[in-house]
Amino acid sequence: MTGKVYIVGAGPGDPELLTLKALKVIQEADVILFDELIGEEIRELLKRESKAELIDVGKRHGKHKMKQEDINALMVKLAKEGKTVVRLKGGDPFIFGRGGEEIEVLAENGIRFEVIPGITSAIAAPSYAGIPVTHRRYDPAVVFITGKQERERLDWSALAKLNATIIILMGVSSLKENVERLLKHGKNPDTPVAIIENATTPNQRTIIGTLANIVKIAERERVKTPAVIVIGDVVNVRKKVKDFLENTKSRKAERI
Questions:
Q1: CA-based, 20 to 30 A from 223: which of 174, 208, 216, 234?
Q2: CA proximity to 22, closest of 43, 4, 40, 8
């Protein structure tokens, strides 16, 4: 009998943000194919909570242990062997996680699957930094974009004119280019920017600046991946609340 594949979001890194349903299927799985971006604490949880075979497929930006096509083929192969497979992905599978591509492959091969959403870092990172992605007095909308090659298809002129929070995932390496595009198309250089590094983990760090200076600040502070970039007036909320915010387990100094 053909098995089943669960496409599961592991959340942003803090294991306590893993959903109950995700934990249940992790405990029941025969094989777990996990992305490196799930984080060290989630990997430790897998070792404690699951008896499944654990396969690290990589998938950190720029570092892939397996090609996406090989991951797809492995999921199909394992399911056809009758195994219960968990494909564990950082954040949410459908927010720049290629989960959509994977379910298409499963359907094409007649494999039953179930999607278990996860908390995306696009929302969790700002939340842990005291930044709401929408706020009635600031930005009434939010836009998620990728900092990878797909950004070339964006209408940067329209994006710069939107009265919306802009969240960029996987955008550290392209920060300079993205900022230049927004400024070129008329975005106010005084627009606040936050970069949240290692969100929801003990190593979370929040760096604040504006479109005019964030590139230099990021270079000075040697910002590394994974990090979420937040652009918009909602970033100003952090100043009002940060002294009372207790989300992070350890807080590194904010750089301005």
A1: 234
A2: 8
* All CATH 3.40.1010.10 domain ranges in the chain, comma separated: 4-116
pTM of the model: 0.91
Catalytic residue among 4, 14, 170, 187: 170
* Per annotation, catalytic residue among 4, 59, 83, 89: 59
pLDDT in tens, 93-138: 999 999 999 999 999 999 999 999 999 999 999 999 999 999 999 9
The answer to whether 134 and 195 have CB atoms below 8 angstroms apart is no
The answer to whether residue 63 is catalytic is no
Rounded CA separation 60/58 (Å): 6
Architecture (CATH level 2) of domain 4-116? 3-Layer(aba) Sandwich (3.40)
**59 in catalytic set:** yes
CATH code of the domain made up of 121-244: 3.30.950.10
**Confidence band of 247 (pLDDT split at 50, 70, 90):** confident
